[in-house]
Amino acid sequence: MGIWKGQCGDISIGWDSPVKDPVNPAFINLEERGGLGWLKGFNEWFVRCGVNSMGAPGIDTVLDYSGNEFEVPLTLHGKIANIPARAVCLEITEDAIILKGEVDETMMFGPALRLNTEIRTEFGTGAMTITDTVTNLGNNPQEHEMLYHINYGEPLLGKGSSLVAPFKQVAPRDPRSVEGIDTFDQYGAPEIGFVEQAYKYELVGQRGSRQTMVMLRNAEGDKASLLRYSLNDFPCFTQWKNTAGKADGYVTGLEPATNYPNSRRYERSKGRVITLAGGESRTTQLTIDTLDTKKAIKAAEVEIKKLQKTVKAKVHPLPVPRLSDC
Q: What SS3 state is found at 118?
């Protein structure tokens, strides 16, 4: 139930991955290359990571069917992106196109989680809303992590593009990301040999609803993609920068999440991993709006600046242990 590519007016939404076509999950070995096999199918504009685990690959401790602890390897970004939907329906009304799907991440003596999603876009707008519900189908409590990996290449990404977001603090993920902290919110042209960088954010939300917004805009200020969601749903945000050569995947990722994409063991130690009780459900919502006028983009920037004025922003020059496992 990911979204490969999109088009809004004359704006192409997505990116040009080295993986050129959708890949059948049967051909994805998540354990390949030390747990990085997820990348063999990575070419979507909108892809979920989770729902039992996500983030960096690593060793974690779980319980077997007898309740004994043992160690297991968790692979990059979990399983949900490579599990086919078990039920899909499309509805077209007078006002909207609505796609619904159901995906089960289940096993015997292990997690039994179900994702129900509704993807809705109304006619006459550039907006799309994703409403996801994750349910623990079992009787025992289960951990739940979710990250939306929303990826952009040209024309939204280019030299002079920028990320506009209201934040309390932002910090580099690792030593490589430290090298770009002075321009963390700015993007360069494709650069052959560029090594990825990532930045962890604590965003600002509106009082009460905790609604926040993040925008990627091009250099000219006439094309942008705007995310709107509540920090109650996704309290953590990561910016991924991979402005490599075009043939190697010139892309940036905007990543709202339930927690940061560190190893699950690390995130659990920081108290950020959600646990769903038996039968419990959790529903989240995110709207992605494509903006194609300078007026609309300026209005969004005014909203973001209004939120930013409520706090003093802090840019950390080095990784912060509370945010990054490095």
A: strand
pLDDT, tens digit, 9 for 90 and up, residues 8-54: 999 999 999 999 999 999 999 999 999 999 999 999 999 999 999 99
The tally of CA atoms less than 13 A away on the side-chain side of residue 53 is 27
Q: What is the DSSP letter of 109?
A: T
In the 8-state DSSP scheme, what is residue 9? T
State whether the Cα torsion 259-272-286-25 is positive or negative: positive
- Residues in Cβ contact with 160 at an 8 Å cutoff, skipping those fewer than 6 apart: 186, 187, 218, 219
Task: Give the residue from 164, 148, 180 showing the smallest Cα distance to 78.
Answer: 148
Residue type, 95: D
Which domains can be identified in the chain, with CATH numbers?
6-315 (2.70.98.10)
pTM for the full predicted model: 0.96
Backbone CA torsion sign across 258, 264, 270, 274 = positive
Question: Do residues 127 and 288 make contact, with C-beta atoms less than 8 angstroms apart?
Answer: yes
Hey, what are 233's tokens? 């749903």
Q: Is 13 helix (H, G, I), strand (E, B) or coil?
A: strand
